[in-house]
User: What shape does this take?
Amino acid sequence: MNSGAADSVGAGLMASLLWIGLAAAAASDINQAPPVRYPSLPAAAAAVADFVPAGWRIERQARGDLNGDGRVDRALILHDDDPALRVRMPFDDSPPVDTNPRMLVVLFARTDGGFRCVLVNHTLIPRVENDRDNDPIDGVVASDFAIADGTLQIALGGFGAEIFQPAFTFRWIAGAFRLIAYQSMAVHRMDGSTREVHVDYTTRRVELRHGTVSDDKDTVRHRRLPPGPLPTLQAIGDGFGFDPLAEDNDATH
Assistant: This one.
């Protein structure tokens, strides 16, 4: 091979290696969603719309009395709508992955009109960060959001190896939203096995169910959580990652 041909081959090889390196880097970037700066919300304002930052929208809204004063409070799921946070998969014609985050916000109605903000949470509703994540609010599995019987209720929809739905019920107690009930239901997509977890935090009672979709012969066990304070909404973190039994070593049948 003459030197000109060798130089040409070498240049082509270097270009190929560079392209592969860039492709690998681009492919790995999707696994780290772009950073987010959460805006601050006012402590009080005249209207619900005043609590919605520019570029965000109200995705869900629930109404009801959450603090027992007879006035209609609001619970909001706010969703960012930044085009820069819709990430296109490298070398893929599929739609961009919407990694825009959400905020859970609660507003108490004031006696003199308007609202005061008592909760802003960035973590309970997990952010979609790559094309493998299921959207917890608007994904394959149904979600739910409501104010009922003086409680704030939110269920997230999960889809992966299992179809699952963790559901949380919070009550305003001693200046914070505290978890009074939790349940999670899951069905494994391959073998059809089912599992349910029901926790009543006011009695510390836990019910665990395991079965299959092919019959109704569930195995049921009962436990009790050790004594402790009711978890606050702010302390729960990622709603998909929450495990009420993670630190429970005191089981009764």
